[in-house]
Here is the input.
Amino acid sequence: MDLKEEEILGDGIDAHWYYRAKLAALRRWTADLRPAALLDVGAGSGHFSRKLLELTPAVTGTCVDPGYPADREEQVAGKPLLFRREVAATGADLVLLMDVLEHVDDDTGLLAAYVGKARSGACFVLTVPAFQWLWSGHDVFLEHRRRYTLPQLEGVARAAGLQVERAAYYFGAVLPLAAGLRLVGRLRGEDPRQARSQMQRHGALVNGVLGALCAVELPLFPHNRLAGLSIFLRARKP
Here is the structure.
């Protein structure tokens, strides 16, 4: 999770439609897995690792982020969650890079570095923002370098040494709304190169409506290779 977004949402993150829907998609994407150990790369606050420790049989998690001021440990649902500035190697059987690759210049290099640290058979789950034509001031605010298409992300994963198992778009149900808001912004003269956050707290009505749209989409999302705001990719280290 991006810490800039967490600063905006604060303790409202669990109620926000976007993060509730993303967690639901992550759980569906990994429903057939029984990971014992998680590695969450670029984890920020560790939101997704915390939720997986609470909701799945995973027994330990490690969050890696060079932005941490120091290494530390916490307990989540009675399970250890480690926060580390770096790791030399990992025995994790599930490795998450949730909205990480778009932040770095060398996305293939970063992913390959963690493929090299992982054990054979480890499953990788990647998420990134989709479609460069959706670029906006929010991408600038979050310090993104790029947005992706499915073939582009699949190419990065393969170049990094992974075997792609599946990839799909998500948030297709809210794509027309997001595209419309960007179009309105352009018509108003907003510069897509100007940093401008679009993340905000919402009331129960907005969270309910947008969350319901994503819930309707959820059963179909693993098969969606057409369009969406985000991409989910699952791959394995040979």
Strands lie at 37-41, 60-64, 72-76, 79-84, 94-98, 123-129, 163-170, 230-236. The two ends are 27 Å apart (CA to CA). The mean pLDDT is 89. Helices lie at 3-9, 17-29, 47-55, 107-117, 137-141, 150-159, 175-187, 204-217.
